[in-house]
Please model this.
Amino acid sequence: MTQVIEVQNLHKAYDGIRVVDDVSFTVDAGEIFGIIGPNGAGKTTAIESVIGLRKPDGGSVSVLGLDPQTEARQLGNRIGTQLQEAALPERMKVWEALDLYASFYEKTVPWEPLVEQWGLAEKRNTQFGNLSGGQKQRLFIALALLNDPQIVFLDELTTGLDPQARRATWDLIRAIRAQGKTVVLITHFMDEVEALADRVAVIDHGRVIALDTPDNLIAGLNGETQVLFSVPNGFQAERLENVSGVTAVHQRNQHITVSGNGPLLANVAAALAQHNIAPADLRVQQANLEDVFLTLTGRTIRN
Amino acid sequence: MKSFLKLTYMELKLQLREPVALFFTLAFPVMVMVLFGIIFGNQAEELLGGYGQVDLSVPGYIGMVVGTIGMLSIPTTLANYRDLGILRRLRATPLGSGPVLWSQVAAQVVMTAAGIILLFIAGLAIFDLRIPNGNLAVVPAILLSAFSFFAVGFVLAGVMPSARTAQAVGMAIFYPMLFLSGAAMPRYIMPDFVQQFAGFLPLTHVVILIEDLWLKGTWNLTSLSVVTAVLILGLVVSRFTFRWE
Model:
């Protein structure tokens, strides 16, 4: 597989504080590459160095074979960016923004189909300041796709959106990849990378502390699975402690949580059947990327 | 070039959509002219070389347009574009900084021209403005003055931490200067020490430069030097202080 981004030993410091500290990663063509970490972890600074908006203190960056510092213009024509904390003038209309930004690139796709595709057709004459958060984000994606880029960088795309709009945006990101583009997704939402990313780099305090597929990262935890269910009153949950693989059993009234390893659900279900117990609302809870982050750093990502 | 023209056109459209700001840049100088015109009239007076009060005030009002745009419009617009992340978004394109900054200058030159044309339309319609057989060099002199004050505006935009501060500081510097420089009212009615102090204000020299060319057809070299010096200083300082975010 061809690599479209190669970052080696990237360094960037502000006022002596290492914001990006020896970051290395590669991104393959056609993948959705997630970069995750808490706010202030250095994700945005790293990515802004990759696209040439910032000059790194050290290390090398190559994007589509180009040096972002010396070949910024060529690179700019081949990538699309949706930046955090970027905006358009309040009174600029949707169509005006697309028409204006189209003039900045050597080659562009017609913007009318983009407007249709991103659900902005009815908003063409609406001023930027009157768009909803989700509509603004869709406009930014449309702007990022104007030049038919090979790589699209999306920084905190869904921050500030309601859950429904977030889900809708995920579909849009999948649609971008379906067009054969590479997507670099920067976010502090674990569920977002879990749902979308083929591979993910976990960044904390400016360093890459893990880099793998979300599945491998979770599997690497050797994390316990939890089986949760409700039982009729009077059932003694301690009876489950001897089931193979079980490490702990917690009971609160009718609600029981069994933690353990291996084929836990099958084992617990078999044990319950033996006791002629039919569990209600049975479900399995597995480790997710939140747990990965917690294990790697000892903190949750929101703190 | 296409990007530059589109940006300039867009900037002008955006300005026309801000009625309050538009009032200050375009209508305010006209209003001051009409007010003083109504108070003092525009009768030709021998003491004034055959001109009326309004005729003589035109160069001042032109200075007022230039100053308003340079010290109020430009810093507020640019600092606002920076604060909101509009410049940040522009910088993430292959465009480069040139077209972005020059389109702002071009749009403001058009606004300056519009403000001056409005002055003349109102002056001719209401006060039968007398146009001296002056020197056409007044046009480049106005342009030079505009660039000079625009550069000051770019410095203000860069140095001030926010759009609000840029606007407040711009007003705090501009309004006293407006009234002391002879842009809003004639300098000769002011006490000597005020006139001497006014000699240190760049806007005074804009007014004198335009006044001399407009009425006598001569270049005032002192004022020309001051205005040029402000331009060069402004360009150099803004080069180091301008921030994209």
